[in-house]
Amino acid sequence: MLQNYFVSTWRNLWRHKFFSLVNIVGLAIGISSSLVIAMIVHYEFSFDQFQLDKDRIYRIVLDTKRDGFEGHSAAVPASLAQAAQGEITGIEQVIPIYSFPGDAKADVEVPAGSVNKKTFKKQESIIFTNSDYLALMGYKWLVGNPTIALTQPFQVVLTKSRAGIYFPKKDLQDVPGSTLRYRDIEVSVSGVVDDLEKITDFRSKEFISLPTLEKTSLKDDLMLNVWDDWMGYSNLLVKISPQAQPSQIEQGLNTILAKHSKKEHFFSELHLALQPLSTIHFDERYQGMDIRIAHKPTLYGLIAIAGFLLLLGCINYVNLSTAQASTRAKEVGIRKSIGGNKKQLVVQFLGETFFLTTFATVLSIIIIPLLLQAFSAFIPEGLTFSFLGYPSMLFSVLLIVLLVSVLAGLYPAFVLSGYNPIQVLKNQQLVSLGQSRQALLRKGLTVSQFVIAQFFVISTLIISKQIYFVLHADMGFAKEAILTFRTPRDTIATHRMQFKQRLQAIPGIASVSNGFLAPATAGGAFANVSYFNGKEELKPTVHVRWGDDDFLDLYNIPIIAGRNAIASDSLTEIVVNEQFAKEIGFRQPGEALGQFLKYNDKEVPIVGIVKNFHTQNLHAQLAPLIFQNRWGDIFHVKLRSAHSGEMNWQKTISDMEELFKENYPDGEFNYEFMEDSIKKFYEKEQATASLLNWATGLTILISCLGLLGLVLYTTNSRTKEVGIRKVLGASIVQLISLLAKDFIKLILIAFIVASPLAWWAAHRWLDNFAYKTPVGWWVFLVSGLGMLLLAVLLLSVQTFKAAAANPVNSLRDE
């Protein structure tokens, strides 16, 4: 019996090669896309799920408030670790994690002090911690004693891969005792652990013992004994006991913080909280420890897209399968007349669907590596094709095959198996079928396909329009042909001045400024500023920028009242923007001139007002800002536009790098154009738009295949009608209009249904922006006309073929 099913299935698929190909392609598109999405989603949700007792592991985070402004930090005061260990019951393990201050990187000298030493520049993934960290993450020890390896000062444990880089000619057993130098700290290797091949956000490769900090200047750099300030390099994990309640632990932590911190400080409220290990990968509020944050709404959106694509593939299969009803009806009639029952026929047709789905799945798996390469910009780092071999992913593949087989095959199986053999063999079944409820259902499925397609098209157009708007909006400052780079900290002002003068001498450079951050930056820089208006003290949340005399001119930021502040290392004058003047109560910005602000316990006069400019992306409203005239570690360079062309700019940048290396031989020359910096503000939005572009294209493709199926079904079922009308004098144009008008109605119905849904979803997304593009009526018009035109082109081919056919062939058996 099974052999008969298989032979029948193969013969039917081979006999209808075109339908089989279209079905396989439609299903393969939906399945392959869904599998890639399933890999991405499953990978993101797999982070840090392997640790023992993971439900009892927390990261301590810090929430702050000041004048209605809320802040969140993954970093905590470094002194908290020791206090928490000794003063709070219910904590099993306290695991501090400290990185090198600065850029969290270090030059590593191997072996330390040797004549044949080799220096590895800017090594990453180096932390100061204890042996509990290695146990928590489940590192396997290859060499060394885990109980003593990180207990003494100047000890370090390496991973196997990092030991292989530093000591390529040594066996692992000989690595302990070797010396390394991190910046000015010399340590001895006390152990080697295997690399952690788990999906985790904690990817450190070198572990220096905590007691080392007490013996070096890093003790002060990391502020190990300070309670009212903290660095981004100070993080803390804890593992609580099974009986402990997180709320009690939090209460104990905040009691310690209140006891040790000053009564008055910059923030009106400080609160320590326990962040579960499972949420670290998804909580955007607490970014730190070089952890990549995944966006849960985006992942849920991807799941929805995968569901839509699978659904479209199933609808497509149903339409194409029922379109073949006229060619399968007699087969069903003959099988029933010789003893076949409905159950056997249902099993046969479901088997065909399962076979086709399995084939499409195999094809999908083959093309997944190509999709991973095509979607490389959206694939999380560490996700490879091998992830498909995980048991959970193999189960997902099997589930998709079964789900698609049932959803796609069940309806056609029951329809085809339900034919009356007597009516079929008398050629009466298909006549009555044309006006049946099944035909209405097929039309409803096609409308559903195009509703989804129209929804994606409209949403994509609106999102793309908003991204174009934010990338080209007037930010209030010049951004074309401007780049920035940071120099190593230089305490001698004359060095920076001389360096600036030499930069200005490079032919391709129009102007140079030195200062702090660019006008708009992803990072925040705030100042503690207050103004007393005679009745109350106002404390707006203020952004701060500073630069030399050329900063405002370079960025074309006009002073609309007063003048620029006099350059000075000690703050004597200050410039504010229009928004600041407005927030302290002045309707006309110029009225704020001469007023005194309290800045760091010092009275400073306002001497100038600059025009408003955006200091952050367009998600946020314009912020009050103060500007100081002083030097910093960042140089801002405007290139000459007369030297157009990338090659000329590259020559100028090369000259800049050569001059940089001459002045700062140990520094790294890393530059970034302002336009690229602004693009980075909207990386998530651009990724969303790109994914929607792909989803839209796939949705339209599958929908058109479904429309083709309905066209084929209709033309097959109305062949004799077309022949009779043609004999009676109907023209080809009239016949095409007759056959196409029903499909046009379906497209219009889909547009009417999809438009309000897309409008609502787009406006919800646009609410994330303080400044947004208007959603014009033309977006809906372009979407509707574009989809209608595509459908008409597709319809014209098949309907013309049917209308132009010789009526003798269709009426021959009458």
UniProtKB/TrEMBL annotation:
<feature type="transmembrane region" description="Helical">
    <location>
        <begin position="743"/>
        <end position="763"/>
    </location>
</feature>
<dbReference type="Pfam" id="PF12704">
    <property type="entry name" value="MacB_PCD"/>
</dbReference>
<keyword id="KW-0812">Transmembrane</keyword>
<keyword id="KW-1133">Transmembrane helix</keyword>
<feature type="domain" description="MacB-like periplasmic core">
    <location>
        <begin position="20"/>
        <end position="254"/>
    </location>
</feature>
<keyword id="KW-1003">Cell membrane</keyword>
<keyword id="KW-0472">Membrane</keyword>
<dbReference type="InterPro" id="IPR050250">
    <property type="entry name" value="Macrolide_Exporter_MacB"/>
</dbReference>
<dbReference type="InterPro" id="IPR025857">
    <property type="entry name" value="MacB_PCD"/>
</dbReference>
<feature type="transmembrane region" description="Helical">
    <location>
        <begin position="691"/>
        <end position="713"/>
    </location>
</feature>
<dbReference type="InterPro" id="IPR003838">
    <property type="entry name" value="ABC3_permease_C"/>
</dbReference>
<feature type="transmembrane region" description="Helical">
    <location>
        <begin position="299"/>
        <end position="320"/>
    </location>
</feature>
<dbReference type="Pfam" id="PF02687">
    <property type="entry name" value="FtsX"/>
</dbReference>
<feature type="transmembrane region" description="Helical">
    <location>
        <begin position="345"/>
        <end position="372"/>
    </location>
</feature>
<feature type="transmembrane region" description="Helical">
    <location>
        <begin position="775"/>
        <end position="797"/>
    </location>
</feature>
<feature type="transmembrane region" description="Helical">
    <location>
        <begin position="440"/>
        <end position="463"/>
    </location>
</feature>
<feature type="domain" description="ABC3 transporter permease C-terminal">
    <location>
        <begin position="304"/>
        <end position="421"/>
    </location>
</feature>
<feature type="transmembrane region" description="Helical">
    <location>
        <begin position="21"/>
        <end position="43"/>
    </location>
</feature>
<feature type="transmembrane region" description="Helical">
    <location>
        <begin position="392"/>
        <end position="419"/>
    </location>
</feature>
<protein>
    <submittedName>
        <fullName>ABC transporter permease</fullName>
    </submittedName>
</protein>
<feature type="domain" description="ABC3 transporter permease C-terminal">
    <location>
        <begin position="697"/>
        <end position="807"/>
    </location>
</feature>
